[in-house]
Specification:
The chain starts with 6 loop residues before the first strand and ends in a 5-residue tail after the last helix. β4, α4 and β5 form a beta-alpha-beta unit. Helix content is 42%, strand content 17%. Strands 3-2-1-4-5-6-11 form a seven-stranded parallel β-sheet, with helices on both faces. The chain has a two-stranded parallel sheet with strand order 7-10. The protein is an alpha/beta fold. It contains eleven helices and 13 strands. Bound molecules: NADP nicotinamide-adenine-dinucleotide phosphate. NADP nicotinamide-adenine-dinucleotide phosphate (NAP) binds next to α1, β5 and α6.
Length: 313
C-alpha cells in the first residue's frame, strides 16, 4: 500500500522517464516536488499540488532547499546532452545530490541506471554504474534499478532505432546489431520505479530489470519494421567501428550527434539481466518485445488523434 504522505523529490521531471513518473505519481495524488533547471518550462504541465523548484545538480548550493522535508528522492538525470565531459559532470552531480540528501536526512534514493556487467563497459554504462555507487555512499537506502533499452515513444534509444528503420530501406549494419539486449516497455519501468519508492525500508539494493525477451538490436529493428509494415533489408558488415557507426547514426537520425555517439558506443555491451532474483521482490511481470513496441505505437496513435481532434478527445 502506497504511503501517500511521503514527500517525494523528482529530478529529471522534464525528461522522458521523469516526466512519465511524474504523471503516474500525480495520478496517485502523491506529495511531489520536482527539481528543474527551467522551472518555468515545467510549471504549466504539472498537476495542482505538485511543487516545482529551481535546482541544478551541478550547482550544489541549489539543492538543500529542494531536499528539505523529503523522504524519497528520485535520481533520473544524466549529462549526456551537455557538450562537456559527461562522466565528470555526472560524477559531480551525483556527489552533490548524495551530499544534500545526507544533510537533509533523506531516507531513500531511487535511481534508474543501466545494465551491463562486462569488464570493458562503455564510458556511458560505466558512468551510470559509478553514479549508483556514489548515491549508495550517501548512507540513504539506495535502490538502483538497472535497465537495458527502454521501449516507448520519446525514449532516446527507441527513437534511434525508429529513425533508422523508418528512413533506410536497406541498412548496412555494423557488428553491434548482433549485441544482445533485454528491452523493457516504459510502463513496466514506471511500475518498478513506483514499487521501489514504496518498498519497505531496508538495505540498499541493485536490481536488474528487463523485458521478457533477450534479443539483438537487429531483432528490435526487425520487429519494429514488421509492426509498421515496412520491408527492410539488413546487410551485416564486420568492419564498422563504433566511431564510424556513430557518424553513420548522426547522418541518418535527427538526434543530436553527440548524444547518439555516446549511446552508440554502449551498443557493443550486452545489456541483459544476469540475476533476475533481486527484482522478483516486486510483483511485476514485464511484457516482451512485440508487446512493448505495440504499446509504444498505440500510444503514439492516441497522441496523434488527440492533437488532431483535441475537443473530441
Ligand atoms: N531512455 C532509456 O532508454 C534509458 C535506459 C536505461 C536507463 N535510463 C536511465 O533513465 C534515467 C533518465 O533518462 P531519460 O531517458 O529520461 O533522460 P532524458 O529524457 O534525456 O532526461 C534527462 C533529464 O535530466 C535533467 N538534467 C540533466 N542535467 C541536469 C542537472 N545538472 N540538474 C538537473 N537536471 C538535469 C534534464 O533536465 P533539462 O530539461 O533541464 O535538460 C532532463 O530532465 C537516466 O538515469 C538514464 O540513464 C534510460
Amino acid at each position: 500500500m502506497a504511503d501517500n504522505q511521503k514527500r517525494i523529490l523528482l529530478t529529471g521531471a522534464t525528461g522522458y522517464i521523469g516526466g512519465r513518473l511524474r504523471r503516474r505519481l500525480e495520478a496517485e495524488s502523491r506529495e511531489l516536488r520536482c527539481l528543474a533547471r527551467r522551472p518555468e518550462a515545467l510549471e504549466p504541465q504539472v498537476a495542482r499540488g505538485t511543487e516545482v523548484v529551481y535546482g541544478d545538480l551541478l550547482r550544489p548550493e541549489t539543492l538543500p532547499a529542494a531536499m528539505r522535508g523529503i523522504s524519497t528522492a528520485c535520481y533520473l538525470v544524466h549529462s549526456m546532452a551537455s557538450g562537456g565531459d559527461f562522466a565528470r559532470e555526472d560524477r559531480e552531480a551525483a556527489r552533490a545530490f548524495a551530499s544534500a540528501a545526507r544533510a537533509a536526512g533523506v531516507e531513500r534514493i531511487v535511481y534508474l541506471g543501466g545494465l551491463g556487467s562486462e569488464d570493458a563497459l562503455s564510458d556511458h554504462l560505466a558512468s551510470r554504474q559509478e553514479v549508483g555507487r556514489i548515491l549508495r555512499d550517501s548512507g540513504a537506502q539506495t535502490i538502483e534499478l538497472r535497465a537495458s533499452i527502454i521501449i516507448g515513444s520519446g525514449s532516446l534509444s527507441f527513437e534511434m532505432i525508429r529513425a533508422l528503420v523508418e528512413r533506410l530501406p536497406v541498412m548496412v549494419t555494423p557488428r553491434w546489431v548482433r549485441t544482445l539486449a533485454q528491452p523493457i516497455a516504459v510502463e513496466d519501468v514506471i511500475d518498478y520505479l513506483v514499487d521501489a519508492i514504496d518498498a519497505p525500508a531496508g538495505r540498499s539494493l541493485v536490481l536488474e530489470v528487463g523485458g521478457a525477451d533477450r534479443v539483438s538490436y537487429g531483432d528490435i529493428m526487425a520487429e519494429y519494421a514488421r509492426q509498421r509494415g515496412l520491408h527492410r533489408v539488413m546487410i551485416a558488415v564486420p568492419v564498422l567501428s563504433p566511431r564510424l557507426s556513430s557518424l553513420w547514426l548522426a547522418l541518418v537520425t535527427p538526434l543530436q550527434a553527440r548524444v547518439g555517439r555516446k549511446l552508440v558506443e554502449s551498443l557493443r555491451n550486452e545489456t541483459t539481466v544476469g540475476d533476475p532474483s533481486g527484482a522478483e521482490i516486486f510483483d511485476i511481470r514485464p511484457c516482451g518485445l512485440a508487446e512493448a513496441i505495440r504499446q509504444a505505437l498505440a500510444e503514439e496513435e492516441r497522441e496523434i488523434a488527440q492533437t488532431r481532434w483535441p475537443k473530441a478527445s
